[in-house]
Structure formats: structure tokens, C-alpha cells
UniProtKB/TrEMBL annotation:
Cofactors, names only: Mg(2+)
EC number(s) stated in the UniProt entry for this protein: 2.4.2.9
Keyword list, A-Z: Allosteric enzyme, Glycosyltransferase, GTP-binding, Nucleotide-binding, Transferase
Native organism: Actinoplanes italicus
Pathway field: Pyrimidine metabolism; UMP biosynthesis via salvage pathway; UMP from uracil: step 1/1
InterPro entries reported in the protein's UniProt record: PRTase-like, PRTase_dom
Domain Phosphoribosyltransferase: 16-219
Protein name, as recorded: uracil phosphoribosyltransferase
Similarity comment: Belongs to the UPRTase family.
Gene3D superfamilies linked: 3.40.50.2020
Glycosyltransferase keyword on record: yes
Database matches in SUPFAM superfamilies: PRTase-like
Superkingdom of the organism of origin: Bacteria
Length: 229
């Protein structure tokens, strides 16, 4: 179960910092990790994050009959929910969500920063038509400055989703991004596997992981003389 970080109670849920999780982070943070190692190991962490995010959704009582004829007084997730991936890096988290909930609906939001102004601009949004009635797991592996996250949250609230029904799931989170989301949308909860030290002058997290999307999709690879690896 995720732990709530001190000072932002019930807002930021940090995965337990176990030796196993630190070992996984050691692999994906290594600049020499190949793409297969990076994707496979990131996927293991993403699965943990998804499970922790689901834990924050409302549950309702649900009874079942066991094979020996007894009643088990169990639980199931109550209201409907969906995933929304912030393209492109957020698409890396879809498989982790589908591995837990195969039939889950997943929407897409594409937001890109203007290279000159550094301001986020919405280019595309395709969401379930009934999203206002759903809880939302907002998927993006990196929460850096918070600009893209705030823009995506704005899209969701603009479609009628209350901010207290939004759970952001991030692999890494910078303190600056957390503070930005908390200031603008205090009802949004966040799940992360690491709160980083800070951002550098280029808005990269420290100690960081580099560009997650490039490393996941292989677009950081340099073609060899024999062709694309």
C-alpha cells in the first residue's frame, strides 16, 4: 500500500520505498540500461503504481458464494472509472493498467509545450462520452514542472470531472510539480514511486531518469551503420 508523504496528507501517495523498488529504480536510472531492460523494469513499477491508484478509488460491499457454499463478504470498486493517458509517454502505462483491468476504457490527451513560450497547448483529446460520471486515473510517468499535468486536469474538469475524482499516477515526481498541482487543484490525489530532489535549469528531474518517452519508445537510440536498431 502506498504511504502518504508528510506535509501533504492525503494528497501524495508514495509507494513504500522497499529494497525491491530501489533495485528496480537502479535499473531504469542507469544510463547504460538497454531498451529491453528499461521497458521491462519500468513496467514492473508501473504495475505497482496502478494497484496503488486503484486502492484510492471508492469500494462497495459485494458478496460472493465460495466453492464450499459459504458467503464471502467482499468488496468491489464501486463507481465506474477509466484511464486517461497523456500522450505520448503516458501511453507506456496503458499496458500496466490493462494487465490489472483488461476491459478498462482509456482516453487520450495530447498536450505539447510551445518551444518558444514553454506554455502547454492542447492538440487532441478523446475521452469516454460519460467521463463526467467516472473516476479517472490520469497516466503520465513524469511530473516535472506540472504544466502539462495542470493542462490535462483542466481538460478533465472542463468535461465535468470533479477534481477529487482524479488520481494522477506518475513514475517520478518533482517537488515543483507536486506543489503546482496542489496549489491549483488541491483535490487531485497523486501516486508516485519517487519524489525527486529538484528540477535542473532545463526542467529535468534530479537524480532523474532522462526523457522517459524517448527511452521507452526507443527514439533516443542512434542508428547503427547497418540501420535502425
Amino acid at each position: 500500500m502506498a504511504h502518504t508523504t508528510t506535509g501533504v496528507r492525503e494528497a501524495v501517495h508514495l509507494l513504500p520505498q522497499t529494497n525491491q523498488l530501489r533495485a528496480l529504480h537502479t535499473v531504469i536510472r542507469d544510463r547504460h540500461a538497454d531498451r529491453d531492460q528499461f521497458v521491462r523494469t519500468s513496467g514492473r513499477i508501473i504495475r505497482q503504481l496502478v494497484e496503488a491508484g486503484l486502492e484510492l478509488l471508492p469500494f462497495e460491499p459485494y458478496d460472493v458464494q465460495t466453492p464450499v457454499g459459504r458467503t464471502y463478504h467482499g468488496l468491489r470498486i464501486g463507481p465506474p472509472f477509466c484511464g486517461v493517458a497523456i500522450a505520448r509517454a503516458g501511453e507506456s502505462m496503458e499496458a500496466g493498467l490493462r494487465s490489472v483491468v483488461p476491459a478498462v476504457r482509456i482516453g487520450k490527451i495530447l498536450i505539447q509545450r510551445d518551444p518558444a513560450t514553454k506554455q502547454p497547448h492542447l492538440h487532441y483529446a478523446k475521452l469516454p462520452t460519460d467521463i463526467a460520471e467516472r473516476h479517472v486515473l490520469l497516466l503520465d510517468p513524469m511530473l516535472a514542472t506540472g504544466g502539462t499535468a495542470l493542462a490535462a486536469i483542466g481538460v478533465l474538469t472542463g468535461r465535468g470531472v470533479p477534481e477529487d475524482r482524479i488520481v494522477m499516477i506518475n513514475l517520478l515526481s518533482a517537488p515543483e510539480g507536486i506543489a503546482a498541482v496542489r496549489e491549483r487543484n488541491p483535490g487531485v490525489r497523486m501516486v508516485t514511486s519517487s519524489v525527486e530532489e529538484r528540477l535542473n535549469d532545463n526542467a529535468y528531474m534530479l537524480p532523474g531518469i532522462g526523457d522517459f518517452g524517448d527511452r521507452w519508445f526507443g527514439t533516443d537510440l542512434v542508428p547503427t551503420a547497418g540501420g535502425t536498431p
